[in-house]
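Hey, quick one: can you model this chain's 3D structure?
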Amino acid sequence: MNIRRSVAALSLCAALGAAAAPAAVADDSPAGRSKGLYGAKDPKFDGVWRQSLALLAQDAVGVTPAKSAIDWLAGQGCADGGFAAYRADTSKACDPKKGEFTDATAAAIQALAAVGGRADTVEKGIGWLKRHQNDDGGWGMNPGGPSDANSTSAAIGAFAATGQDPAKLNSKGGKSPYDALLGLQLGCSAKAEERGAFAYTADKGKPVANELATASAALAAQGKGFVFETVGKDGGAAPEPLRCAGGKGGADKADGAGGAGTPKDAAQAALAHLSRVMSATEMHLKSAMPGAKDQPDFGGTADAVVALAAGEHSATASKPLQWLQGKDSGATAWAKGDPGALAKLILAAHAAGANPRDFGGTDLVQQLNATGPKPEAAAPGAESDGKSEKSEKSEKKSDDGGVGGVWWTVGVCAVAGMGIGFLISGRKRRQL
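Sure thing. Here's the predicted structure for all 432 residues.
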């Protein structure tokens, strides 16, 4: 399963949380890890999201997560089936009006469905999503909020992960999730360079192209979640762009929002847009955060790789994947010590057929496993997840302030996943 949100996501940013609140750090001692939480950073804003991605990534590569890790995630669920970003005290009731998030709920559903054994929690989560579907067919960040591409995409992924057809999930207004999602795609009335892209939301005036929303929507429009099974042959063809009146070849698409008439066409147009944007750089997306420097968005690029791989555009997906693997990209340094970021890279590698245990010379799986409780079992033939004396010294040096250390990562990470999109609120700010 795309990876989320993107997500773009979305999609929850621990770095943003650190700027807005005291920088508390989770207990990263062996005793703290036995509680099941992955990562050492404050989980206030991304606890459920990063935990969900970590479990999905481990399961995708044949690692059986620790029971305590699964229990931790399942225990974060609210009585009504929804999930908050993080609950420090699970004995206290959730606030159903503002304390529960579509993205967190959808990510947790996908993770718990993948690892198995939590059918009741998954069923309650699915029920929560159904109850909070907007009349236009989509979902907002919080219950009742305006539908956005990242939250709607995450929900579609949750239904896909549980074997339900999103196209048949009609709202009280008779609309499906795809009605809401495709309504956010920029059509032929948009600038040529933005056609096929998705806006985060149409709630605040004219829709604006957003690459993280586009990556999330491109995956969801294919009816897939963060981890998926490919059903066709390896595809070398490039994705088909949106065709407007006067275009060569194929049927002309209608002008206006949602210019691509079907989810399949919408996904192709979105993937073509992402490919076009990345080809203008070194094959990566750039940060869309307000005030951010002109810098790569590693998480968003990983999301784009997953979406392209889901569409079986292997040749196109291989280019941004190779950039992520390159020693000069800084992707592995960005992800080091961050379970959500590591999971994003693992899911991208897995989706595109690369080896996440040798990702530009880095064993991402070993690094992810080291951020949480010891897994129950690793994939047959996998290398030991024990650390060598050399790697321990190297990690200590990084944690003391070198490039790749936890605090360096916090300092440079504009978004920690649905973009990196982890903080849904951060994702929303990109549209303001």
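One thing worth noting: Residues 135 and 324 are 39 Å apart (CA to CA).
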